[in-house]
Amino acid sequence: MSASLVNNLHFENWSSNHVSDWLKGLDDVIQQYVVHFKDKDVNGKKLMMLTHYDLEKIGVRKLGHQELILEAVDLLRSLRYDYETENLQSLALQLGCKARSLFNEVQPRNLENDPNMANHSHSSRSRPHQLSVEILSSVADLIITLKCVIQWLDRAPFDRIYDMILLRNTLVKLGIDLISACQKDTTDSNPEEKISTACHMLADYCDGLVVSNSETLSIQPASLEHTTIRKKPGEELGMTIHSAYYGVHVIGDIRGRSPADLCGKIEKGDEVVQVDQKTVVGWQLQRLVDTLKEKPKEVHLLLKKRPHHISPYGQLPNKRHQNTNLLQPQVNTLPSKKRRSREGEHNKQPRPSLQEFVSSVPSEDLYTPR
């Protein structure tokens, strides 16, 4: 990967102006704090080490607003430090370790071996049990890693592999089970048991993905690629963009023969990292769309691409461009006069004489006057 692409990810080198410009793309409720970040001279290094305590000192006191900022900063950290090593197998290993750790933390105690629990009445055990803050924090951390795994499985080429589709659907269901068990209004008398079951299944599926999976795509990391879309003033780019989850923007459908298609480097599932040197990770989708419309003729994109290799030595062909030759008009040209004359000399047959022609026709078929 070129040094220029790597330098684009050195967010710790941002000035306070770069940080302010990036914050302007976040949620609308964050815009009121842009001035506070500017006054506190928060540069890229401080941004990458931001905590709840730092946000309190800056002036962001609402917990929900703090979480919005910190989630966006987490996306920057992940892109900065993990993109070269992050792959499906490593994420599955992380998810399996977190699931097994949470399983050991919430595994129901054996009532027969625990005298403290044995003395409790049946009515006290049947009441809904409130989960501890430590368990809730561990579940939240596990869900973050689970979202990363699902994000990989949602895109090409994994979304075309049947086993991966089944795995993705199963992981989503287990994630929903974990979240529902942590709700305050849950009717489960023992939510730890539900969390324990989901974690056990998650660990088993992750172990299977890490150990028994022979698909080389799962061990290959993502890559960055720069591309330029050239278009006429007022012309649409010809592609759709949606948010896989908040702050992560993914290329959707691409219209054939459009500027996005003709540039030859954009594929469905690519993640938009920068637009004209502006980092859009963590931004609102509408802010990204508005930025794409600012330039009338050229749009420069930095894309994060999922692996498309069938082996470490080559890439799968782009299916959108496999049949482009069929669209080219077939031009049939006549041979030149010189060529026709040469071919005629080699293939020229002796001209039959009149006598040979007459003798070859049966006599009864000859025309005779009346």
Automatic annotation (TrEMBL):
Keywords: Phosphoprotein
Top-level taxon in the UniProt lineage: Eukaryota
Species annotation: Magallana gigas (Pacific oyster)
Region Disordered: start-end pairs: 309-370
Protein name: Connector enhancer of kinase suppressor of ras 3
Family indicated by similarity: Belongs to the CNKSR family.
UniProt biased composition (Polar residues): 323-335, 350-362
Domain PDZ intervals: 226-307
Residue span(s) of domain SAM: 14-79
TM ranges: none
Record has Oxidoreductase as a keyword: no
InterPro entries recorded: CNK1-3_SAM (IPR049628), CNKSR (IPR051566), CRIC_domain (IPR017874), PDZ (IPR001478), PDZ_sf (IPR036034), SAM (IPR001660), SAM/pointed_sf (IPR013761)
Positions of the CRIC domain: 87-189
Tagged with keyword Ribosomal protein: no
